[in-house]
Amino acid sequence: xxxxxxxxxxxxxxxxxxxxxxxxxxxxxxxxxxxxxxxxxxxxxxxxxxxxxxxxxxxxxxxxxxxxxxxxxxxxxxxxxxxxxxxxxxxxxxxxxxxxxxxxxxxxxxxxxxxxxxxxxxxxxxxxxxxxxxxxxxxxxxxxxxxxxxxxxxxxxxxxxxxxxxxxxxxxxxxxxxxxxxxxxxxxxxxxxxxxxxxxxxxxxxxxxxxxxxxxxxxxxxxxxxxxxxxxxxxxxxxxxxxxxxxxxxxxxxxxxxxxxxxxxxxxxxxxxxxxxx
Length: 278
Description:
The chain is mainly α and 278 residues long. The chain has 9 helices and 2 strands, in the order H-H-H-H-E-H-H-E-H-H-H.
């Protein structure tokens, strides 16, 4: 395969993620929230695949990195924020009328936090300051922390018209209309948004040392992909998200591995100039 066409393949995958994110917002505007949630989740698969394909084809480069960052801001920054605003402002009994500005503030904070985290990650990575752990919750994972509970709520709230089938049955009771849990969802979104720019050390689980961990992670990843592609069992997606959250909290507070890299503060990165000695 000619070199220039080799680079086009991962770029097309990245752009597909951008289109999915845009379609998710469009479906949300048309009140098709369940479809919007699944499309937004599908972006996480494309975000994973473009990097894998680029490395397999030896087609990595600065253009792809820059494009990937721009798409990530839309897919995992703007889109989840818009969905969070739409859901909480529509279904929470507390955010109608004068308090509607609260979902607006939290959604705006999410986008700001995503932008800051992405810029910090890119600069620190280019400076080769850390490689073994994440500092703050990665954007795709943070988006999953928001999308998974919204999907579960959509499945059990009859107001969403979630298409329940024999392959995706409800295993708990349903409720209808507005519910206080959507108020908590907004607070959860603010907390996860802060987590993206916090001091939280998050382990990279892509290459665990033990074989049983590799097998467990592979099974979880495969099941997550199946759930997203076939649009079934959001409960399992929420279960996997909570697993990762608890693992990250345990890693940060109770393991010595968290100390292997010094935390780099966002305010310090603001002044970095990579073309000069720091």
